Amino acid sequence: MPLQETDAFVLRTYSLREADKICLFFARESGKVRGVARGARRLHSRYGASLEAFTEVSLVYFQQENRELVSISSCDILRSPWRAGVSSERLAVYHYLSELIAEFLPEQEPNERIYRLIGATLRAIEDASAERLLALVRYFEIWLLKLSGFCPDWRHCAECDAHLMEAGAIWLTPEGVPQCADCSGRVGDLLTGPAWTMVLQILTLPPQSFLTMSADWRALHQVGGLVVRLIQRVLERELRSYQFLDRLRPVESTVTRGG
């Protein structure tokens, strides 16, 4: 196979022998790709800072037939979230999101919309106050579930196709299937008031615009509990890095306006 060139986000790296690294990327053209970066652990490696998590790079690699790991030819930085320094709160978000993407998405299955979601969310994280980072995590989780096919369209009742955008509340089955009051029999996980408003904002706004909306902590907690259950149902376990998000939980019950 000839050299492959694509834009990609670095997700994670692992040490390999004394001088090399195994790198996991989410590439625009080829989805999740695992490759070997020869000499990446050396002090004066040609890769420099290009292999830091969530650095967007121009990736060139070669894949031999019947080999899972590709050989990385070059990896040049297009955009890095690390150039201006990263707070401990943002570092916690990066740890969680990188593990979520790595465990959630299949190997070598490209998804242009998820690639753009990652980029838009990362740019919003760079601009967000520490108090709004958890809201962006919820935003990313909901859209990842939706774009990867594990979450039905919450804007319509799955039974009668009624439009739910103007509804005061919806009920969700354990699988996350949305239903109106009549079809659900008012049984299931209830989303109402501020929590349902927050979900509607997530489904209709880009992440930068979502940051300007008011966010009620109780609503954020309710939406988070539901989304995490859906993710755990898909993965059949809790992600190890989820514990890092504890440092993002605000002391106040309400977070008013962020940005």
Can you tag this structure with a few keywords?
259 residues; OB fold (Dihydrolipoamide Acetyltransferase, E2P); de novo design (two linked rop proteins); 2 domains; five-stranded mixed beta barrel; 7 helices; elongated
> CATH homologous superfamily of the largest domain?
Recombination protein O, C-terminal domain
Note the total helix count: 7
The structural domain count equals 2
**Low-pLDDT residue intervals, each spanning 5 or more residues:** 251-259
User: Which bin fits the share of residues in helices?
Assistant: 25-40%
Structure report:
This protein has 259 residues and is α+β, with helices and mostly antiparallel strands. It has 2 domains: 4-79, OB fold (Dihydrolipoamide Acetyltransferase, E2P) (Beta Barrel); 91-255, Up-down Bundle (de novo design (two linked rop proteins)), CATH 1.20.1440. It is 34% helix and 23% strand. It is built from 7 helices and 10 strands. It has helices spanning 88-104, 112-127, 133-147, 181-184, 193-204, 207-210, 217-235; strands spanning 4-16, 20-27, 31-37, 56-62, 70-79, 169-172, 178-179, 189-192, 215-216, 254-255. The strands form 3 sheets. A 5-stranded mixed barrel has the order 1-2-3-5-4. A hairpin with a 3-residue loop joins strand 1 (4-16) and strand 2 (20-27).
